[in-house]
Design brief:
Strand content: 5-15%
Largest sheet: 2 strands, antiparallel
CATH architecture: 3-Layer(aba) Sandwich
Number of helices: 5
Distance between the termini: 10 Å
Oligomer: single chain
CATH class: Alpha Beta
Number of domains: 1
């Protein structure tokens, strides 16, 4: 586990965007698993969660995960596993747009966990989580 710390505006998120390939690198180079960051070959190997929710607010937690699982080629057993891993079992059928901030954060994390990526890049993963849950996820 590696944490990137620094003041606001110092480039933490920009570095993460470069690692996952959503930010064009202006100078120099960045390799991930021996490949150029952003390479299509890395897409299934790198999972990413943004600071803001990355799920559809009008779908339930389970519907969101089933949708992304189809894209990633993950089975329904994986959907069930990540719902339990992020402790949203009691809210699996809840519409995401009606969840608390912490549950919304966990729903986004669940999407990133679906593919069982070798590298997870989590931008502000504990924002909105209550202190007890933060301790359990750290």
């Amino acid at each position: 586990m590696v944490g990137i710390l620094g003041p606001s505006g110092s480039g933490k998120s920009t570095l993460m965007w470069c690692i996952v390939g959503v930010q064009r690198i202006q100078g120099g180079s960045l390799d991930v698993f021996g490949l150029s960051a952003g390479s299509a070959l890395l897409r299934r190997r790198v999972g990413y969660t943004t600071q803001t929710p990355s799920v559809y607010g009008d779908l339930s937690v389970c519907e969101n995960l089933r949708y992304f699982a189809r894209i990633l080629g993950a089975g329904s057993d994986r959907v069930d596993a990540v719902i339990e891993a992020v402790e949203l079992g009691d809210h699996a059928e809840s519409v995401v747009g009606r969840l608390s901030g912490g549950r919304l954060t966990r729903a986004s994390l669940a999407v990133a966990l679906l593919a069982e990526a070798e590298l997870l890049v989590l931008d502000e993963p504990t924002v909105g989580l209550d202190p007890l849950l933060r301790r359990r996820t750290a």
